[in-house]
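Lab channel / #folding
Pinned by the channel admin:
"Please post every new chain as: sequence first, then the C-alpha cells as a reply. Keep commentary short and put observations after the output so the thread stays searchable."

First post following the new format, from NK:
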Amino acid sequence: MSWLLNLYETYESNLDRVGEIEKKYNDQEFTLLPISHTTQNAHIEVEITEDGEFHSATVIDKSDASTLIPCTEDSANRAGLKIAPYPLHDKLSYVAGDFVAYGGKIEPFTYYIKQLEAWVKSPYANEKLKCIYTYLSKKRLIRDLVDAKIVWLDSDGHLIEKWDKKAESMYGNKPPLFSVISGGQESAFVRFNVYSPDSIITKVWKDPEMYNSFIQYYKNLLSDEDVCFVTGETLPSTDKHANKIRNAADKAKLISANDSSGFTFRGRFNKSNEVANISYEVSQKAHNALKWLIQRQGKIIDQRVFLVWENEKVNTYDPHEDAYDLFSLDPAQSEKTERKSYTNEEFAQQFSKVIDGYQNELPADSKVNIMILDSATTGRLAVLYYRNMNQNLYLDRLVKWHSTCIWRHCYRKGIIFFGAPATKDIAFAAYGQKASEKVVKGLMERILPCILDDKKIPVDIVKSAFYRASNPVAMENWEWEKTLSIACALINKKEGYNVTLDTKNFDRDYLFGRLLAIADVLERRALDSDETRSTNAIRYMNAFSQHPARTWKTIQASLQPYQARLGTRGLYLSKLIDEVASNMNFDDFNNRPLSGKYLLGFYSQRHELWQRNTMKEETSN
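Reply from TO:
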C-alpha cells in the first residue's frame, strides 16, 4: 500500500494544480484531475443559451477532443450493455431524449435525466447546470443536431449507422462527424457548454465551479464507511477503482476483483475488501495523481510505464536519462561541454555540485519513488517494480552510477558530454537501432537495479555491446561511434579506467587496442580528405578482437604504403607503434581473444591523437 499512500500524498501536496491545464511537448493538454472526474474524448460540442435553448453545435477537432467530465463510480466502470450514465456529458444515445424516435433501440436517457435532475435539485447546483438541464428536458437534441447538419438521417428518418455509398448518394461528401467517430452516430460523445452574447463564460469542462459543484454533491451520496488500509481512517470505501491510467483508451486497472464465483481468493477471504479496503477519496486522489505524473513525466515504451517522482517536488532526476540531460537541469553547468577530459573523481565532484544545489531545495527526509507499470492483458495493470528511497541515498546512487559507468560521448549533435548513457541508448547499443520496444523496455528494467543498488551490469548486455562495437563494418559510422562509446562506458563500470589515455597501463588488451587506434589514425591521415572508406584497422577490427597477433601482422603490412606516403609526417605515429608494442610482454603477443579493455585502449588512444592533431592545427593558424 506504500505506493498508494505516496501517490495520495503527492496529490495532497499539489492541490493548487488541480484542474490546471498543462501542455505536453506536442501541445496535448492534461491536468491533475479533481476527484469524481475523468477524461473523455468528445466528438460534438453543443452550446446552450442562458435561457435553456439550443444555440449551435460543432464537430470537435481531434486535437481539442480531450474533455474533463464528472463521473460516478458506476459510469467510470461501465462496459458492454450496462446502463450507467455520466452525470453531465455523455454519448448521444444517453443525452438525447429523442433517441428512440430516430431509430434507437434502447432509451438510457431516462436514467441519465433522472440522475442529472437529482444534481440540479441539490443545493450544490449552479446556473450553468440548470441551463443545460432545462434544454435537455425538452427531448429535442437529435432534431436540433440534424438541423445544424451535425448528425445525419437515412431515408427512413433514422440515424445513419455508417457512411457508405448509399449515404454518399444522398448527401454527397462525407460529413466531418464520420471522420472522428469509430462507431455509429449514437456513440458520438457530446459535451455541453453555455453561450452568452453579453459576456465570456468559462467553458463548462474547464470551470472550477462546476468541478466543486459535483464533488460536493457526490460526496453526500457516498456511504459504506470502513477502515481504509492506506490511511487507517474510517471513510466511505469503494470497490470500483479507476482505469484510463496510461491514456484515455486504457481499460486496465491496478485494483480489481470481479471474479466472486471463481478461485480469486483461494479460500483465504470471504470478500474482496478483506484483501484491500480502500476509501473512495484515497483511491480517486492516488489514481488521479498517477495519471497526472505519467502524462507529465512518465516514459512509456510498448505500454510499459517508467516513472520517477518526489512527493514534495514532482520533478526529479530520472535514472534512465544520460548525464547530459541531468547536467542540463542546472544551466550553470554549460561549461561541461568545453572540458577535454575528466577523471572519474573530477566528474563525480562536478556532478555532486549539481546534485547539492538540488538537494538543498528539499527537506532532508524527502523520498523518491520509482515505479514500473505494465499489463499482460487489456484489463489488468501490474506494478512490476516499486521503490521508495531516501532522496540523499537516491542522489548518491545516481552520482556513483554516472561517475563509474563513465565515458566520453559525442553522439548528440554538436554536443560532447561525459558520464553514463541513457538506458534506452544502452539497449540500442546492445541490440541495434532496430531493437523492438519489447526488448528495449526489458533492458531498461534490468538496468534499474544497477543504478539504484549498484549491482553489476548483466554480462549478456555488456558482451552484446562489446561484440557490436567490435564489428564497425556492420553499421553506419555514426551508429558505430555511438555504440563504441556506450560499450566503453559499460565495460568501464567494472574496470574503472579514466577516459584520458593511460600510458602507464601495460595490460595486454589495452595495449593491443592502442596499436589498433594508431594504425587507424595513421592510415586516415594518409588518405585524401574526401576519402570516406574505412581504414584497414577498422575493417579488420572484428578479426583483430578474436585473433590479435595474427590480424596485427596483416594490418601492419597494409600500413607500409601509407607510411611511405606520409614520409616524415608519419614518423611520430610509426615510432608510437614501436613504443606501444615494446611495452607488451613477449608471451602476451598471442592470439588469445581480447577482452573489452582493448576498446578502452582503442578509444583513448584515438582520442588523444585527434586532440594532438587539433592542437597542432590551432597552433599553426
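NK: The first strand starts at residue 22 and ends at 23.
TO: also worth noting, The first helix runs from residue 2 to 13.
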